[in-house]
Automatic annotation (TrEMBL):
<dbReference type="GO" id="GO:0042597">
    <property type="term" value="C:periplasmic space"/>
</dbReference>
<dbReference type="InterPro" id="IPR030678">
    <property type="entry name" value="Peptide/Ni-bd"/>
</dbReference>
<protein>
    <submittedName>
        <fullName>ABC transporter substrate-binding protein</fullName>
    </submittedName>
</protein>
<dbReference type="InterPro" id="IPR023765">
    <property type="entry name" value="SBP_5_CS"/>
</dbReference>
<keyword id="KW-0732">Signal</keyword>
<dbReference type="Pfam" id="PF00496">
    <property type="entry name" value="SBP_bac_5"/>
</dbReference>
<feature type="domain" description="Solute-binding protein family 5">
    <location>
        <begin position="86"/>
        <end position="436"/>
    </location>
</feature>
<dbReference type="GO" id="GO:0043190">
    <property type="term" value="C:ATP-binding cassette (ABC) transporter complex"/>
</dbReference>
<dbReference type="GO" id="GO:1904680">
    <property type="term" value="F:peptide transmembrane transporter activity"/>
</dbReference>
<feature type="signal peptide">
    <location>
        <begin position="1"/>
        <end position="19"/>
    </location>
</feature>
<keyword id="KW-0813">Transport</keyword>
<comment type="similarity">
    <text>Belongs to the bacterial solute-binding protein 5 family.</text>
</comment>
<dbReference type="InterPro" id="IPR039424">
    <property type="entry name" value="SBP_5"/>
</dbReference>
<dbReference type="GO" id="GO:0015833">
    <property type="term" value="P:peptide transport"/>
</dbReference>
<dbReference type="InterPro" id="IPR000914">
    <property type="entry name" value="SBP_5_dom"/>
</dbReference>
Length: 527
């Protein structure tokens, strides 16, 4: 069997859980924070700007959904600060030599809140439900799965229809494990609301919901990987980020769950009561051009558009310097094991844009660009994209949309230019398949390139990163040269919390940031 490297990850986890198993301090009925008051290990209060929409972890995908349900339902693996997989429910994972069988070994000390053990049957049920009903991003990541079976209560075997070196990373990190004995009673797992009487198996359990106000979660004292320091986690709902910031400064909350807009981070940088944790994103912000619409089907037009963007101005002004160049590549500097050092960012050159448009026989180019008007970063730089394009004689009409409308248009590929961002793109062979392979789940630009498909397939079949690197780098060069994606920047995330707390373990993910289970299990009062 070809073994994954997990010894270093296990050592890192042991350090985290040493902190997590430290003696807890008795809680208090009084709020944490306040003038001169020491932080209490009894309660950690987190600000969020949205309610939970879906308590079913296999379906929910909003930030607050993820934050709450990730503390209730385990995944096979978690992620460290460098984006590497570390054990959680799984202790070890491997591929057979031919790559058509994947095996995962599980902890034997985790149990559901009703007392039943978490076993391989729960893992098999969870992945099979997603495979059968074909819902969510996970379904698009496990297309190689033929069948999963429980070899023993602590071992799962996945039979694959083809070698897929991305499978274990994908199923390990992205798939929440749910209790079979609860979810199997529903006619459809996808439609199961799971909105009361929760049976969970994380470091915290949800005990009280006051919609629009707060979500209260209590510590699980016999949590297998280790007892958290914090006795109670409270998510408080605020109308916007500005109100969250005021609450943090006043000591009403201990941390802000969502990543701060760059302008807000710049304001908080000098506040002695606030600590900013910074970490580069594993995702990126980008523009995609609908390759099925004329004249965007012509690479010369797409290159003209790429030369009509002032990338450095966007990073300096809209992002306040909290961003770096991706070198116009989908293999960003946040992934040093894959990044192509030869990649170069498209230069902002309006004259070159005009020349390319003339070669393509295109004049008076006018295009619509959709974006989520609630996204503070994109709302700042969308007008900058429009204004820079004017210098190249290109008219871009901005369509700032309500989020659901924006998502609907994106899903239907109803746009000329799509402005958006990916939160986590941490596994290039898998991610490029989703975003750029013909028929890919998030192939919004409707790319269909046989050579690119073949290279992505080669990368996915590779069972080691070393084998995958060459075809994936070549695929990324095609994406760059054909402008199938115009990557603008990689954001440096700013996560704010009170200086009265320490021990958080950030993930390079806007969805999990410092609210991931291993981070909150290790968080403790400073000093």
């Amino acid at each position: 069997m070809r073994r994954a490297t997990v010894l270093g990850a296990l050592a890192a986890l042991a350090v985290a859980l040493t902190a997590a198993c430290a003696p807890s301090v008795p809680g208090s009925s009084q709020p944490t924070g306040g003038s001169g008051a020491p932080a209490e290990a009894g309660r950690l209060t987190i600000g969020t700007t949205a309610d939970v929409v879906n308590y079913n972890p296999l379906v929910g995908n909003s930030r607050t959904d993820s934050w709450v349900t990730s503390l209730m339902y385990p995944h096979l693996t978690q992620m460290d600060g460098a984006g590497k997989r570390v054990p959680y429910l799984a202790t070890e994972w491997s591929y057979s030599d031919d790559g058509k069988t994947a095996t995962v070994k599980l902890r034997d000390d985790m149990k559901w809140s009703d007392g039943r053990p978490v076993t391989a049957d729960d893992v098999v049920f969870s992945v099979t439900a997603v495979q059968k009903e074909k819902f969510g991003v996970v379904a698009g990541l496990i297309t190689a799965l033929d069948k999963a079976k429980a070899v023993s209560p602590t071992e799962v075997e996945f039979a694959l229809s083809r070698p897929d070196g991305t499978f274990l990373d994908n199923v390990g990190f992205w798939l929440p494990i749910v209790p079979k004995h609860v979810f199997e009673k529903a006619p459809s797992v996808q439609k199961f609301a799971n909105d009361s009487d929760w049976v969970s198996a994380g470091p915290f359990k949800l005990t009280k919901v006051e919609r629009g106000q707060r979500y209260i979660m209590e510590r699980v004292d016999d949590f297998g990987p280790g007892k958290p320091v914090i006795k109670e986690v409270v998510f408080r709902v605020f109308p916007d980020v500005n109100t969250e910031v005021l609450a943090l400064r006043n000591g009403e909350i201990d941390l802000i769950g969502n990543v701060l807009p760059p302008a807000t981070a710049a304001e908080l940088k000098t506040d002695p009561k606030v600590k900013l944790q910074q970490i580069p994103s594993l995702g990126w912000a980008h523009l995609q051009y609908n390759t099925k619409r004329k004249p965007l089907d012509d690479v010369r037009v797409r290159r003209a558009l790429a030369h009509a963007v002032d990338y450095e101005a966007i990073r300096k002004i809209a992002l306040k310097g909290y961003a770096k160049s991706s070198n116009s590549s989908v293999l960003t500097p946040s992934l040093p094991d894959y990044a192509d050092l030869a990649a170069k960012e498209y230069a902002f050159d309006p004259e070159q844009s005009k020349k390319l448009l003339a070669e393509a026989g295109v004049s008076n180019l006018s295009l619509n660009m959709i974006y989520d008007q609630a996204d503070p970063n994109i709302a700042r730089w969308a007008p900058m994209v429009r204004d820079a394009a004017k210098k190249a004689g290109i008219t871009i009409k901005l369509q700032g949309l309500e989020r659901n409308t924006y998502l609907d248009k994106t899903t239907k590929r109803d746009f000329d230019i799509y402005a958006g961002s990916w939160a986590v793109m941490d596994n290039p062979p898998a991610n490029l398949g989703l975003a750029f392979k013909t028929g890919g789940f998030i192939n919004y630009a409707q790319v269909s390139d046989p050579k690119l498909d073949d290279l992505i397939d080669q990368g996915q079949r590779a069972l080691t990163q070393e084998e995958a690197k060459k075809p994936i780098q070549e695929a990324a060069r095609i994406i760059h040269d054909q402008v199938y994606d115009n990557v603008l920047y990689v954001e440096t995330f700013n996560i704010a919390h009170s200086t009265k707390w320490t021990g958080f373990k950030p993930m390079p993910s806007e969805l999990l940031s410092i609210l991931n289970p291993l981070s909150l299990a290790a968080a403790k009062p400073a000093g």
